[in-house]
Write a structure and sequence with these properties.
Elements (H helix, E strand, L loop, with lengths): L1 E4 L4 E7 L5 E9 L8 E3 L5 E5 L4 E5 L5 E5 L4 E8 L5 E7 L4 H7 L3 E6 L9
Antiparallel strand pairs: 1-2, 2-3, 4-5, 5-6, 6-7, 8-9, 9-10
């Protein structure tokens, strides 16, 4: 299992034990200035990361190499691969993370970009 640690700027992997407990925490990727929020896995083991702090979505490989980058119109908070061939990256964006301001601005949207590697598993 891999989780995004937003304020630690990293992706952390865990082994899931037979008892269901998480074990062997290890850094999967240190993301430097990026602030990982929503993430999704592709078929080659790359992880797409929505980074609201840097205003971009990045594809990260194990160890931290960034192999693709996309700057949506809004601030990205989550992403998922889908579409007919699972090659459409859907990105949930907004102009703010403040609920009151978001309600007034009504700027939330789903942005899309086509990518080379399809999603892994089921969304």
């Amino acid at each position: 299992m891999i989780v995004a640690e937003t304020f630690a700027s990293r992706l952390t992997a865990f082994t899931i034990g037979d008892d269901g407990l998480l074990k062997e925490a290890r850094t999967w990727a240190d993301l430097g200035e990026a602030t990982p929020d929503g993430i999704c896995l592709d078929d080659e083991g790359g992880i797409w990361v929505a980074s609201p702090g840097t205003g971009e979505v990045i594809r990260v490989e194990r160890g931290g190499q960034i192999s693709a980058r996309f700057k949506p119109l809004g601030v990205p908070y989550a992403c998922m691969l889908g579409g007919p061939e699972r090659r459409t990256l859907f990105i949930a964006t907004s102009e703010t993370d403040d609920p009151g301001k978001a309600n007034n601005l009504k700027s939330g949207r789903i942005e899309m970009v086509e990518v080379d590697v399809p999603g892994a598993g089921l969304p």
